[in-house]
Design brief:
eight-stranded mixed sheet, about 290 residues, alpha/beta
Length: about 290
């Protein structure tokens, strides 16, 4: 009898192991960020992580503009948000905050896990809009295109297995970090918006390189090599004293110190910080307006 009981328990364990968990993810909105996420979730790395958990993912993408869906592959596509969410376990809201009410109008979402990448829309408002008691608010950035986004998130009501899937989803396109929700507006400015500021710096470098007689490709190579090399040096040093690194480039009476002095006189660091403040303020305004 003991042998039979053990045998049956073993059969049940093996049956449970053989049952594959399918995650049904619906993406509402198909802009640049949504496409980057969809591509990352379909990558072999993400599929392998899911296979390790005996899991798979099915994706449905919905957007009212058919043209935006034309280059989506490996996922179901539709212009009907209602049909898109019917079988969904997770619904990713990837629309602009001002378009959210229209996008989810008439949808039954109270039994779905809502994942939002909308800037400035807090968890309480997402709950009010959708009726769901399971909410994930995420702040990614455009570097998701190359799976190097910083993805800060806060959540409500998720159990351990649901959070495990969210972390797989978010880490598929970058770094995943859970933080208190009250800090997400700050993250919007610090990592969500700041790639645009970095792109402006790169553009200025390239334009100046061309002005000084280099062709555009050479100027771009200079800019990107300098930027990524400097970032990698900070990582390699593990050095949080950035002023020490600045000083290490500045020889007394040399060339660098002249440029650094000019930047400081013209409040370069203050201007950059103020740009982040503006983005943070706008995130807070969006939160109040929804």
């Amino acid at each position: 009898k003991t042998f039979i009981i053990i045998y049956k328990i073993g059969q049940l364990v093996n049956q449970n192991r053989s049952i594959m968990k399918n995650y049904n993810l619906t993406v509402i909105g198909c802009g640049n960020m949504a496409k980057a996420i969809i591509s990352a979730v379909q990558s072999e790395n993400t599929k392998n992580r899911l296979r390790e958990l005996n899991s798979d993912i099915k994706i449905t993408v919905s957007d009212k503009d058919e043209n935006k869906l034309s280059d989506i592959h490996g996922a179901n596509v539709t212009t009907d948000n209602k049909s898109a969410v019917e079988k969904a376990d997770y619904v990713l809201l990837a629309v602009k905050p001002q378009s959210a009410a229209e996008a989810i109008n008439g949808l039954t979402l109270d039994n779905k896990i809502i994942v939002s990448i909308m800037a400035g829309v807090c968890i309480d408002k997402l709950h009010s809009m959708t009726g769901s008691g399971k909410i994930v608010r995420v702040m990614p950035n455009l570097n998701a295109r190359i799976a190097q986004s910083y993805n800060a998130y806060a959540c409500l009501g998720l159990d351990a297995s649901e959070k495990e899937f969210i972390e797989i989803l978010l880490s598929s396109f970058g770094i995943c970090a859970e933080i208190p929700e009250e800090k997400l507006d700050a993250v919007t400015g610090l990592t969500g918006s700041s790639p645009a500021f970095i792109f402006m710096l790169i553009k200025s470098f390239i334009n100046k390189g061309v002005e000084l007689g280099f062709d555009k490709n050479t100027a771009m190579s200079m800019a990107l090599s300098t930027l990524t090399g400097s970032a990698d040096l900070v990582k390699a040093d593990g050095n949080t004293d950035i002023d020490a690194l600045i000083d290490s480039v500045c020889s007394k009476g040399g060339t660098t110190i002249e440029g650094v002095a000019f930047l400081r006189e013209n409040r370069f660091e203050d201007i950059f910080a103020a740009a982040i403040d503006k983005a943070v303020e706008r995130a807070k305004e969006l939160n109040k307006s929804k």
